[in-house]
Amino acid sequence: MTKADEDGMVVIRTRKRKRKGRRSKKRGMAKKTKIALIIIGVLALLLAIAVGTLVYMLNSGESKMHGEFTGIVHAPETVVTQNDGKTIEYNGHTYEYNENVVSVLVMGLSDESMYDGNPDAHCADAVILVAMDTETNEMKLIVVPRNSVAEVDMYEGSKLVETRPLPLTLAYPTVVGGTEDEAAANVARSVSRLMYNMPINYYLGIEQDAFVGSVDALGGVTVTALQTIPGTNYVEGEECLLIGEDALKYVKWRDTSVAESALDRQERQMQFVKAFASKARNSSVTELVGLYNDLSADMVTNLGASEVTYMASCLISGENASLDMVSLTGTTEKTDELGKPLEFYYLDEDSVTEAVLAAYYTQID
Length: 365
Known about the structure:
Layout: E1 2-4, E2 10-12, H1 15-65, E3 80-82, E4 87-90, E5 93-97, E6 101-111, H2 113-116, E7 122-133, E8 139-143, E9 149-156, E10 159-167, E11 175-176, H3 180-194, E12 202-206, H4 208-217, E13 221-224, E14 239-242, H5 244-252, H6 261-280, H7 285-295, E15 299-301, H8 305-317, E16 323-327, E17 330-337, E18 340-347, H9 349-360, E19 361-363
Parallel strand pairs: 6-12, 8-16, 9-11
Antiparallel strand pairs: 1-2, 3-4, 4-5, 5-19, 6-7, 7-8, 9-10, 12-15, 13-14, 17-18
Helix pairs in contact: 1-8, 4-5, 7-8
């Protein structure tokens, strides 16, 4: 299409070139859109893989953790069992075993090298059985006093020498020449015997560095101090933030010159664990799994990635579910065993029975 200018010359419009420019711009926009769609597709694929992996880990963890119930053994006369203990009658009520419960024995490992002369020597200084109902996400924490008398296997290497009643804390070091995992498993077996053979297939031993790291990762936990702790700013009756090495002192310190000081310290440990678990429920699954991976070098455990993912998911899903904590009760007797004075804490049978029923059974009448 043409147009004459003032001098009579013919001017050719450049509409054709403009069309080319518009087509070039459209091609650029189409190319950018295509790249954006590819990026979105890749991200969607990665998200699908991540979700698929999480689902797989959760399903795998669930199938592994629900251990087989093999029946009650050594139950007291006050407990009437049926169907190998899947049904129990106690104090006029009937209870059924809850298949939804999974449990992990958590141990705080103390460094005993200065006393034992062995740089790797440890004792199970705090023993807590964590039982979770994966249907309701309710948690029951049973504190087993460290000096509770249990049937403990004594090993030399891989050879079982004998089984004898000893304070539970010694179930770890009596695996002489064995691995840390064998020692932790020995504690879990001893606790299972105390609990009438309840399935405790998993254990988690936490060394001091892992304890401090886990507390710091959550930004500490706030409690009202139950005692004034030497070497810290924690004063009895005052609200304080437990964090770093001072948090370790709060749960570890005791006056060894006072009888049953381990029980006195246990109250602080129970307070800390409940506060820690409540705060952990505000984290995400990936945060908790990441924390576990970061600190695993200072842990002794047979929990795999799928089991940790599953437990973390249950913990977080139960944000509003109950979290109950109880300590087994008994009486202390002092005696000399293994060439040194020890405190033997004999558990009250009703205390054990009621804890087992609360954690592993459902009342049906």
